[in-house]
Amino acid sequence: MPARTHDIEDLRLHSRMYDAVIEEIDGRRIRIGEDWLVDWASCNYLGFDLDEEVIAAVEPQLRRWGTHPGWSRMLGSPRPYPQIEERLTGLLGAEDTLLLPTISQIHLAVIPALAERGTLIIESRAHKTIYDGCVFARGQGATLRRFRSGDLTELASLLHETTVRPIMVCIDGVNSMTGDIPELRAYAALCRENGATLYVDDAHGMGVIGERSADEQTPYGLRGNAIVRHAGESYDNIILVGGLSKAYSSLLAFLALPTAIKNRLKVAAPTYLYSGPSPVASLATVQAGLTVNDKRGDSIRTHLYRLTCKLLTHVRGLGIHTLNTDNTPIVEIPISPDHDLIAVSEQLWSAGQYVTLAPYPGVPRNEIGFRIQLTAAHSEAEVDALNNALTQLAHDGALRRAPITP
After folding, report:
1. Over the stretch 305-351, which tens digit does the pLDDT of each residue have?
2. Count of domains in the chain?
3. Pairing of β 119-123 and β 143-147
4. Can you give the CATH number for the domain in which 186 is found?
5. What is the C-alpha to C-alpha distance for residues 85 and 91, in angstroms, rounded to an integer?
6. Same structural domain for residues 98 and 210?
7. pTM over 0.85
8. Do 77 and 225 fall into the same domain?
């Protein structure tokens, strides 16, 4: 019997790991009802949500600016906005940056504004919010094409045959489900050869991966300044979208882009013109997070890398299949085809482990399973307990086996 294919409504009705009300937290433990579980579902990769230096930065800014700016960015920006943009521009090594509240809003506003009536080419595994932005652009006259993720030959073919300009290729940076890092240099070269812009959503890479160096402590690189610097690339023909809600634990997002395009978006992007701004607490925690990143970010990433390797070494040793090949802290584990996703989640719950469920159609049928997100606020003991739970699931045959390579 194949595993029951649960859609999101089914999970809402029957899974305790969907739409849960979290009563309180204690470090990386959460209480839901009477049950305490280790939280592997949050994306606070650097642990800034629990960092005392970051937390202490909030109240002084609230006293200065109140709880929430009253203006859209078109009308006025509190001083922290340009201060953060200047610091981000330096960290990323970009020409300029533009802050907006969320990546979802960026995609819906910026992709149509840049695409106009041109051509959008989107990778098949790109995040759903990128696809939504492309569909919105299509409704305004753009042409939308798709290519298989990682298939540079197919992308090259689409670029060569595309005549309607401008052309923009939209991809994920660190993939939100597999945790893998694309060959950015190859994508960038193809786009430059064909006069296309490469639009990269690195929501899960920003803060985790960064520029490479001979003295780096881990393969993540240094400074956490995202995939463009990690790949040793320039920003020529590249627009980088990044979130500060993952590693920086704040409601804020950005684009790294040329100043000319930034000024164009200031009159063309509805999110800049009309949207409500991020709360002051988010501006304060990003400012503090940038300071913490400068002082001890690389040691935090080293701890995160060690925890990630501890988990992945155990998973691979069990012969469990995972889509993660680049050792980033996003580890999806598919279940075996004769097991049920909700039943597996209940076993994890009983073992005190809370994960992100990955049902179809959010993932392909052969990847139905769950996602684990490690953070620097986790402990080695918590990883050990998770490894024990995975060992039991593997022994029960509940997890998909890794393919045998010749």
Report:
1. 999 999 999 999 999 999 999 999 999 999 999 999 999 999 999 99
2. 2
3. parallel
4. 3.40.640.10
5. 10
6. yes
7. yes
8. yes
Same domain for 75 and 101? yes
Please list, in sequence order, all residues whose beta carbon lies within 8 angstroms of the beta carbon of residue 220, skipping any fewer than 6 positions away: 208, 209, 210, 301, 304, 305, 328
On the 0-12 / 13-18 / 19+ scale of CB atoms within 10 A, 1 is exposed
CA-to-CA separations, 142 to 96, 133, 161, 272, in angstroms, rounded: 26, 11, 16, 21
Which residues, in sequence order, are bridge partners of residue 98?
255
Half-sphere exposure of residue 11: CA atoms within 13 angstroms, side-chain side: 24
**For 377-406, what is each residue's pLDDT tens digit?**
999 999 999 999 999 999 999 999 998 765
**Residue 190 φ/ψ, nearest 5 degrees:** -60, -45
Query: 3-state DSSP call for residue 199?
Result: strand
Judge whether 60 lies within some domain.
no
| 270 and 388 co-located in one domain | no
3-state secondary structure of 296: helix
The span from the CA of 236 to the CA of 150, in Å, is 21
Which residues lie closer than 8 Å to 364 by C-beta, 6 or more apart?
Answer: none
Whether residue 269 is contained in a domain is answered as yes
Who contacts 260 (Cβ-Cβ below 8 Å, separation ≥6)?
A: none
User: Residue 108 half-sphere exposure, CB side, CA atoms within 13 Å?
Assistant: 13
Q: Which residues contact 356 (CB under 8 A, 6 or more apart)?
A: 17, 40, 41, 370, 371, 372, 373
The boundaries of the domain holding residue 379 are 8-50+296-395
Count of residues in the chain? 406
